[in-house]
């Protein structure tokens, strides 16, 4: 069941979480939500981060860069 609905494998998910926490200081709870939901747009990412102290401070340009970097991690 989990494998059927998983958006990325465990190794990639760990890389994404570590990247978000280390580079952008996003709280672990929100990093986990980003991995689980796998947002594809700035609006989706903004909604996930709306209650995050760090996420509130990010600009749309920064969110766009995060999405691009996440895509690079997922395809590498």
Automatic annotation (TrEMBL):
SUPFAM superfamilies: HRDC-like (SSF47819). One of its GO terms (biological process) is DNA-templated transcription initiation. Gene3D superfamilies: 1.20.1250.40. GO terms for cellular component: RNA polymerase complex. It holds the Pfam family RNA_pol_Rpb4. GO terms for molecular function: nucleotide binding. This is RNA polymerase Rpb4/RPC9 core domain-containing protein. It comes from marine sediment metagenome. The lineage of its organism: unclassified sequences, metagenomes, ecological metagenomes.
């Amino acid at each position: 069941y989990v494998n059927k609905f998983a958006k990325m494998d465990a190794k990639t998910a760990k890389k994404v979480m570590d990247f978000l926490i280390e580079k952008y200081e996003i709280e672990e709870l929100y990093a986990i939500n980003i991995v689980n939901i796998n947002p594809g747009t700035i609006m989706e990412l903004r909604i996930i981060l709306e209650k995050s102290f760090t996420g509130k401070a990010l600009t749309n340009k920064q969110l766009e860069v995060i999405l691009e970097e996440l895509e690079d991690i997922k395809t590498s």
